[in-house]
Amino acid sequence: MTFPATTRFAPSPTGFLHLGHVVSGLYSRIMAGESGKFLIRIEDIDTMRCTPELTAALREDLDWLGLVSAVPTRQQSKHLPEYQAVLETLRERRLLYPCFCTRREIAEAATQTAPDGSVVYPGTCRHGAVHAGREPVWRLDMGRALEVLQDVPGWQELGHGRIAGRADAFGDIVLARRDTGVSYHLCVTHDDALQGVTTVTRGRDLYEATSVQRVLQNLMGWAEPVYAHHALIIGPDGQKLSKRDGAEGVRVLRQEGWTARQVLDHPLVRQALEASFIPADRRPDR
Ligand code: GLU
After folding, report:
1. Which residue intervals define the domain Glutamyl/glutaminyl-tRNA synthetase class Ib catalytic in the entry (predicted)?
2. Could you tell me the domains of the chain?
3. What pLDDT digit, counting tens, does each position of 59-80 carry?
4. 13 lines ligand 1 (CB under 6 A)
């Protein structure tokens, strides 16, 4: 990586900060390097699961660890009108449609699974549907979007080269959820563009999401970042993490007397970072 990178760590406060977050935060800071910018963004659009208490706890744990954002931390729930404006643009371009199907109706009609394991929407409402008394979700018409782009966009994965996108295998994904009116893919791509993120760092569990996010970036004319998906923590012997391994979160380790340095240097954190791509010029910065 030769340019000064802007990276971000974008946790969702659905629970307390755990070692998986520590890997993501550290990896993002390492990838920013000394000349780059490391940002923290709180992705709390799911207001049912992300409470103000959990957000406050997350901020406190990050401060304790010394993971500090180069700019004031952006909190997505405070910017909902900005995401609504993007939806409006896509709606005007007839790239979105309302869908009234219930989860159950979709499960019964669906026949395909997307690369990320989600169910591919069978397209029931694509050509117009109304259902009095039901709130719709808004879906991206993926076929139309790819037609507009005349391409299935791929991405640059650091250390691995160009990766072929698979957006066509996702079908019509939800961009505005029924409960929150927005969605993860929408908010994350909007904010990465707005904040000038050049290097999207995150766990390998979100690798496949990149295909969809590249479509949104291209539709909206947003800059293309590069991507670096880090290895996930695996417990000893591939088992789920135990309490002793920090499964209950950074605050439990802290109460047990661990220092911030020790948590950052936790063997499971080290192991995940060692299994991740880090350019030679970024390595020592811990
Ligand atoms: N907020 C997302 C999560 O905590 C991560 C988003 C991203 O890094 O793209 O799973």
Report:
1. 6-256
2. 6-282 (3.40.50.620)
3. 999 999 999 999 999 999 999 9
4. no
